[in-house]
Design brief:
Length: 337
C-alpha cells in the first residue's frame, strides 16, 4: 500500500463524550485535566478499518513542529473499558505528542463513534485486534516509521493490548496504566454469584432478546451513589458521572456479551511478548494493583513495574500531577529509537 501524508477522514456520529456543565464538577484535585488540549499538537479525526472491515473512529495527534522529511515513532493509545477516546486516551495521546511522538487514540468497536451493533457489546477478540488495526492505519502514513510503533493501554485496554502483542510483533513496546485483566474480573464476578448464575442469566436473556426484548446492561459505573456506596463505586462515579470525565453513560456493556470475557485470558503466554519491552504503571493504592503485579511476574524480561505513590486506579486516568508522563516518554523514547 502506498504511504500517504497524514490524511483527514470523516468521523462517525457525534462524539458521545463531552463536558456536561449541568453535572457535578467532580474532584478536580491533583491536576485533573481529562479535557486537556495543546497548542503544540494538531488533532485530526480519522477513521480506519479493523481486520473484519469494521470502521474505527480515532484521533490522530501530530506535533506541530514535526519534520515531515523523515519518519517518526508512533504510539497507539487505548481508553479504559467502556470508555471512549475522549476519556483519558486523548489526554495521554496529547501529552505524548507534545513529547514528539505521533499518537493515535480510538473508540473500540461497538462504542463511541466506531462501528458495531448492538451498541456496548463486549468483544475481547475484536478489542484486542483494534490495536493491530491502529498499527495497520499508522503504516499508511508517510511520517510514521513502521518499525517503531508502540502501544499504551489504560485500564482494560492494557489487557487487550497485551493480548494482541502476543500475535503482532509490529507492536514494539507495550506500556499499561492501571492494568485491569477483564477476564479475571468477569470470572471473579461469576464465582461470587455462585454456580452458573451469570451464564444462566446471559443465556436466558439471549432467548428473550431473540423474542424482541430490549437489551439488558450490566456492571459498569453506577448512575447514583450514596453514603453507603463502596469506595470502588465512588472512585469511578467521580470520573464518569461528573464534568471531570464526561457525564454520560458509556461504561455499561450488554449482559449477553459480558460473559464473553469468561473465556478471555490476556495474561496467558504473556512471556511470549519478549524480547519486546513491557512497562506496567499502577497506583500504589489502586484496587487493580494486583493485575500489574501478576502481569509483571508472568512476563519475561525486559519488563518493569512502576508504582505511583499516593495514586489510586482512576487517579491515573486524568490527574496530571500524578500521571508519570516523563516515565512513559522515557520508556517509549528508549525503546522506539
Amino acid at each position: 500500500m502506498r504511504k500517504e501524508a497524514n490524511p483527514v477522514y470523516p468521523a462517525g456520529q457525534a462524539n458521545v463524550a463531552h463536558r456536561n456543565p449541568q453535572l457535578p464538577t467532580g474532584d478536580q484535585s491533583q491536576g485533573a485535566d481529562n479535557w486537556y488540549t495543546s497548542s503544540q499538537v494538531v488533532q485530526t479525526p480519522v477513521t480506519f478499518k479493523n481486520l473484519y472491515n469494521m470502521d474505527l473512529a480515532g484521533n490522530l495527534f501530530v506535533p506541530k513542529n514535526l519534520d515531515e522529511t523523515v519518519t517518526h515513532p508512533a504510539i497507539i493509545v487505548g481508553a479504559p473499558n467502556g470508555a471512549v477516546k475522549e476519556q483519558s486516551a486523548n489526554l495521554y495521546a496529547t501529552k505524548l505528542a507534545e513529547a514528539g511522538f505521533i499518537t493515535l487514540s480510538f473508540d473500540q468497536v461497538f462504542w463511541g463513534d466506531s462501528a458495531g451493533s448492538p451498541r456496548n457489546a463486549m468483544a475481547p477478540d475484536l478489542y484486542s485486534d483494534s490495536f493491530s488495526a491502529g498499527a495497520d492505519y499508522l503504516t499508511t502514513l508517510a511520517t510514521v516509521d513502521d518499525t517503531k510503533i508502540g502501544v499504551l493501554g489504560i485500564c482494560a485496554s492494557g489487557s487487550f493490548a497485551l493480548n494482541q502483542a502476543k500475535v503482532d510483533t509490529r507492536l514494539k513496546a507495550i506500556a499499561t496504566v492501571s492494568l485491569t485483566d477483564m477476564g479475571a474480573v468477569a470470572r471473579g464476578m461469576r464465582d461470587a454469584m455462585g454456580d452458573h448464575t451469570m451464564v444462566d442469566q446471559a443465556a436466558t436473556q439471549r432467548t428473550k432478546e431473540m423474542a424482541g426484548a430490549d437489551p439488558l446492561y450490566t456492571s459498569g459505573t453506577p448512575e447514583e451513589i450514596g453514603p453507603d456506596s463502596d469506595a470502588f463505586s465512588k472512585e469511578f462515579y467521580d470520573f464518569y458521572r461528573t464534568q471531570r470525565g464526561a457525564g454520560n453513560t458509556t461504561t455499561q456493556p450488554t449482559l449477553t456479551s459480558f460473559v464473553k470475557l469468561l473465556n478471555f485470558y490476556s495474561l496467558s503466554d504473556i512471556e511470549t511478548v519478549a524480547p519486546r519491552p513491557l512497562l506496567f504503571i499502577a497506583g500504589e493504592d489502586a484496587i487493580s494493583l494486583g493485575f500489574s503485579k501478576d502481569a509483571y511476574t508472568a512476563a519475561a524480561e525486559p519488563k518493569e513495574l512502576y508504582q505511583v505513590p499516593y495514586a489510586g486506579h482512576v487517579d491515573l486516568y486524568d490527574r496530571t500531577e500524578l500521571i508519570p508522563f516523563a516515565k512513559l516518554t522515557t520508556f517509549f523514547t528508549d525503546n522506539l529509537s
